[in-house]
């Protein structure tokens, strides 16, 4: 099939410099490397030091994606984040300015861990509609800044980081074209993943509880929804595209918990080697998770040109979604290790 489409041409990611291992957490909280590794698959994560915020990590990833695409300009920037530098204005214009992209269209998309899939769909649709000819799509979050320092569950899971892709207008028949999306939400389950205070709902009364400024998550329920919704969305998109599931070469799903990835892979009938995982090294990086897994996968060779890839995300909202493409050749810089 031919026709105008958004084509992936560049990819990059960045991790902030403070590495926190499971043992580091166990020195400060009632947890252990053994608990975190067996329950989540996560061994370490990276967090921002004071003075570095979401715009900073986004700029680093954006610069790497632009270099990977071999370009210095795009005419749209979409930033997926739920930890913007400020409640107002959006962080994207600041990022565009610091990347020297000029007076381009720039805005944030907030869909928590599904943010990157939503942002990709937004930028792709704008390119397909002719509103833009090229775009930088960044997923960036610094959840360490909204976690309760005493909450062993959330601190074990989340890490900070940013990942980005460059899209340009091209043809649907080209390798790298974004071929389709499946997006969904269920607001009736909003309380499962939330920061209760700090928004317009509680602004006039102040915080009911000082803890309301922190991120909360009902882990067990979130786990179940994540498996069901990511499987459902991937299956629906593959069917729309007439892709038999056995023809899918790689699944790059939101990196929340290795047990979730294993369950989604099993549900879709995909063998373990088709399910890309890098959460052991980076944790759950929220909107950065999918592009960081892509960057690691392309760098270590588990993702290669020609692979049929399904991307799928799940997060607060609840929100979930999937995207599909055949991977083009990409040259990527490895993620920093900060060893
Ligand atoms: N160390 C030691 N014990 C812990 C830790 C920890 N880090 N965290 C929780 N526990 C304890 C709990 O307190 C509980 O103790 P209790 O039985 O005495 O009450 C026990 O372990 C079991 O707790 P569960 O929550 O039932 O443990 P579970 O096996 O479900 O694992 C986890 C918890 C890892 C959070 C899991 O539920 C999970 O991964 N959920 C999904 C998270 C997710 O997908 N998030 C993505 C979306 S988030 C977003 O959109 C931003």
Explain this structure to me?
It is a single chain. This protein has helices at 22-28, 33-40, 54-69, 92-98, 115-128, 152-157, 200-203, 219-240, 258-268, 279-282, 289-300, and strands at residues 4-14, 18-21, 44-47, 76-80, 105-109, 134-141, 161-171, 178-185, 193-194, 216-217, 250-253, 308-315, 319-326. It has 339 residues and is α/β, with parallel strands linked by helices. The chain has two domains: 4-171, Peroxisomal Thiolase, Chain A, domain 1 (3-Layer(aba) Sandwich), CATH 3.40.47; 178-326, Peroxisomal Thiolase, Chain A, domain 1. The strands form four sheets. It has a five-stranded mixed sheet. Strands 8-13-12-11 form a four-stranded mixed sheet, sandwiched between helices. Strand 12 (308-315) and strand 13 (319-326) form a beta hairpin. It starts with a strand and ends in a 13-residue tail after the last strand. The model has no long low-confidence stretch (mean pLDDT 96). The site of acetyl coenzyme *A has 25 residues, from helix 2, helix 6 and helix 8.
User: What is the helix tally?
Assistant: 11
Number of strands: 13
Q: How many domain modules?
A: 2
The shape, in one word, is globular
Please state the CA-atom Rg, rounded to the nearest Å.
Answer: 19 Å
**Strand portion:** 15-25%
CATH homologous superfamily placement of the largest domain? Thiolase/Chalcone synthase
Determine the mean pLDDT: 96
Question: SSE string, helix = H, strand = E?
Answer: EEHHEHEHEHEHEEEHEHEHHHEE
The percent of residues in helical segments reads: 25-40%
User: Under the CATH scheme, which architecture of the largest domain would be assigned?
Assistant: 3-Layer(aba) Sandwich
- The class by helix and strand makeup works out as alpha/beta
The major β-sheet equals:
5 strands, mixed
Unique bound compounds: acetyl coenzyme *A
Strand line-up across the major sheet: 1-7-6-4-5
N- to C-terminal distance: 46 Å
Give the CATH level 1 class of the largest domain.
Alpha Beta
Q: Which blocks of ≥5 consecutive residues have pLDDT under 50?
A: none
CATH topology of the largest domain: Peroxisomal Thiolase, Chain A, domain 1
